[in-house]
Amino acid sequence: MKIRKLIVSQRSTLTHRKPLSNFQLESKQCLSSYTEEPELEGFSQFIDSLKNYEKSGVPKDAGTDSDDGFDLGRMKRLMTRLGNPLSNFKSVHIAGTKGKGSTAAYLSNILRSEGYSVGCYTSPHMLSIRERMSVGKMGKPVSSNALNCLFHSIKRSLNEAIVLENGCLSHFEVLTAVAFALFAQENVDIAIIEAGLGGARDATNVISSSELDASIITTIGGPFLPHIDHILRDRASSMFSPIVSASDAGVRTSIKGIGTFKGRPSQCCDLVIELDHGSQSSIELRDLNLSMLGTHQLQNAVTATCAALCLRNQGWRISNGSIRAGLENTFLPGRSQFLTSKEAEKLGLSGSTVLVDGAHTKDSAKALLETIQTTFPDSRLAIVVAMASDKDHLAFAKEFLSGKQLEAVFLTEADIAGGTSRTTSATALRDCWMQASRELGIEVIHDRMTRYRELFEDNFISSTRDSKHETIVAAQNSLSDSLRFANQILRERTRNELGILVVTGSLHIVSLVLASLNR
C-alpha cells in the first residue's frame, strides 16, 4: 500500500453566507431508526416484549456473584430445554469493557480466512438485530429467513421457559439462547461469543469449561461494575481455559502511516508478537493494513491475534497468512468511520468530511481524538453528541474541550435501544459541557448568551468579533438540525482549512445516521 497523507477538499461558501438564523435545512428528510424486515415482525414483537436492560439500564451489581446478581440458573435451564446447543461446538468467550466487538470481528475473520465455519455473537447491533449473529464462512449476518425459521422451530420451548421462569427471562438472555441454537443448527466449527454486561452472572457465562477453548479479556476501564477485572479473571480461571489478555507481554506494534486500502482510509502497521509458549505463539506482520483506525483498534487486532495464536497452540490450523487476511478484511461500521462523499450528500452535507464513531467514555473520546489527529493533524472539528444517561458526561466533555481543534458542539438526543428512558436531554448535556468549560477555564459561546444570538443573526460568522474562535456550545433536540447547523458553522469558520464534522457519544446516535443512509 502506498502511504500518503489523506487530503479531502472542502468547498468554500465565503461568496455568499446566509445568516444561521435563517438557515434552512436542505431536505425535509428526518433521521429515523432502521425498521426490521416484515418477515421478522413476529420475532421482533416476541423479543421486544421481554425486559430489555439495554433500553432501561442494567441494575447495580447485576453481574456480580451476589444476591443482587442475575440468576445464571435461568440460562442453564433454558439451554437444557433447547437441547444444550453449546455442546455442538467449541467457543471463545470475550469479556471486558471496551473493544469486545472489534476483537470478536477480527478473530472471527481470521478463522474464516482459514476456511472455518464461524458463529459470532455480539451486541448491540447498529441497524438490524440480525447483525448480532453472523454464521458460516462469509461473515454475513444471519438471513431473515434463517432467523425466522429457527425462531418458529423453538418458539414453543422459549414460551415454556418464560412461563417456567415467571416471565423473568430477559431480552438479552433469549437472544443469546437463539444465537447458540443457530450456531448448533448451522454446525459451526467454532463460535466467538461477546459478553454483554460482563461479570460472573452474564448470560454468556453459561458456557462450560469443556465447551470453551479460550477466554479473552479486553481493555478494562470506565464507570462499570466494581472490580470487574478481578471478576472476569476469576471467572475465566474457573473455566480452566487459556486466558488471553490485551496486556500480554511480548508485543511490539507501530503505526507507520495513513493511506487507503481497498477503497477505505486505513493505517499501515507493524505487529510483532513473541509469547513464551513456543514458536506457534510467535508472528511478525509487516505493513499490515487495518481499515479500523486508531491505536486502540491496533490493540484490538493484537488481542485477536494473540487469541488466534492461543488456538493454534491447541491444534487449530491457523496460518500467518490467514491472520493477516482476517485482520485486513475486518471493518465495522460506526468505529472511526469516514462517510463517503455520496453518503455525506445524502445527509444534506455535500462537500463535507463526516466521521461517525460510537465513543462514549473519556478513554474512547481520547482515542477518537488521537485517531483524528493522526489522520488529519491540521483539521478543525464540529461535533454532534448524544449520550446515554449512565455515562460520565463531564469527563467526556473535558476530553474534547481540552483539545485545540474544536469549533462547535451541538448537544442533541437519540433513543437508546429504541426507548427514551436512558436518553440524556440535550439541555442536560449542554449544561454539563458548560460546567466542563468552567472547570477547565475555557471560554465558550453558549446558547444562553446574547452573543450567541447575535452570532446567529450575523451574515458574517467569521467576522472580527468572532476572530477568537471560541467554541460554540448549543443544545438542539433535532439531530437533523444539529448536523446541518454544526456543518454550516464549521464551513464558515474553517474557510480553506479542513473541517471534520464528527457524530459521536454513543453507537445509538451513529445508528440513526447510518440508518438514514439505508432508507
TrEMBL record:
One Gene Ontology CC term in the entry: cytoplasm
SUPFAM superfamilies to which the protein is assigned, alphabetical: MurD-like peptide ligases, catalytic domain, MurD-like peptide ligases, peptide-binding domain
UniProt keyword annotation of RNA-binding present: no
GO terms for MF: ATP binding; dihydrofolate synthase activity; metal ion binding; tetrahydrofolylpolyglutamate synthase activity
Key words, A-Z: ATP-binding, Ligase, Magnesium, Metal-binding, Nucleotide-binding
Entries under Pfam families matching the protein: Mur_ligase_C (PF02875)
Residue ranges occupied by any Mur ligase C-terminal domain in the UniProt entry: 350-432
Similarity remark: Belongs to the folylpolyglutamate synthase family.
Protein name per its UniProtKB record: Mur ligase C-terminal domain-containing protein
Organism: Gossypium tomentosum
